[in-house]
DNA sequence: ACCCTTTCAGACAGATCTGTCTATTCTAGC
DNA sequence: GCTAGAATAGACAGATCTGTCTGAAAGGGT
């Protein structure tokens, strides 16, 4: 993104986006992209409106016409993060069919995330910490976490867990801990550590599936066809 | 530089106050107590200097004489959190002698922490998220996390883990995840969930008895004699 | 051509925050 | 009682931030 187009009013919408023209994104999209970049890397409280509009090359009035106020922009930013996270995990899940492997694939997706040099922890945790008891942010975070937990629960049930809820909560703890450690300790291998611990949990609590050999509880990297 | 403490405060408290009087705490102590309460519950960025001094009943000049600037107060606040956390865990560890039980006791201490109605997540994570790449805060957080990890590593070694470092990292992940979940999901039972997962990990990776062989994992004998 | 929507540019008000400074009050020790 | 130093109360400067408002430019659709 970054679209640092020479501000100017140059050929904005490019007439039409039909031709091969890149079609400069709308003000809304540019604002959201800038919010994603600045809010995520520096924090929603630290980054002011002026920074956003300057980075997006957008007038202040456009921001307030589009999102109402700063909180509206923050909400839209978190919503886009949520969608992005869902897509990343859904994509990782398509790589496996075996339920046990699908559970571990979540941690592989996490590992890919950590390799991004711009990785800076969970956006919902940070935003929630910054905004205190901000209702809007809390709602977004709650929805995101409920989805994550439901996803883990479904996969755990498919894998034949005796108590899918419990296993899901435990895996979610590992997932959260890895997100936190990757940021606080600047350690991208946290996902591999979490995956190894998850594998131990699965082996100990899932019924002994005749699934090939006794899997591998390797450290970072791991996984057969892992990574993109 | 820190320790800009003018001898004044020391003179006041250290001088003589041992009359029967309650001895009102020094300005420094009241400021630190207010910082602990307000910074922790609402965030270091959100809470302004004026709120702090009003709550502490202290003049603004006293704050700046004692801590230099706001960052100095934040640093002192985090240092006191670190000490408190160390004490709580050390206290919990004295309750058990068996290494395996001592490892699990860390999660019990965590559970007690979660029962506090004012619990609001890890102060270091929140402060770090709010202040971005604030160097002082990062240093405090790094020190705290290094201590936690070292503590887990020592206990894991005492318990005879083949790879104490790995086990410590995994347990730390569970611990962090529980801290995060207790705050984000407002679920104090997260410590119990983490403890259960930790017990599974210990059963699966620790040798069955404090004797006998060292199981399938590669272990250059360093297992039980490592560190104290 | 004409209208209409979107966008731009930036001044401005009102609030808030950090940090400094002045002037007064309190307390301990001689 | 008196004095020195610490603490207090609060005004103040300087900066920053959110949100509003005015006014104009620039195309698209009819």
Automatic annotation (TrEMBL), chains A, B:
Gene3D superfamilies: Tetracycline Repressor, domain 2. PROSITE patterns: HTH_TETR_2. Keywords: DNA-binding, Transcription, Transcription regulation. Residues 25-85 form the HTH tetR-type domain. Signal peptide: none annotated. Residues 48-67 bind DNA. InterPro entries: Homeodomain-like_sf (IPR009057), HTH_TetR (IPR001647), Tet_transcr_reg_TetR-rel_C_sf (IPR036271), TetR_C (IPR011075). Residues 1-26, 207-228 are annotated as: Disordered. This is TetR/AcrR family transcriptional regulator. It comes from Actinacidiphila acidipaludis.
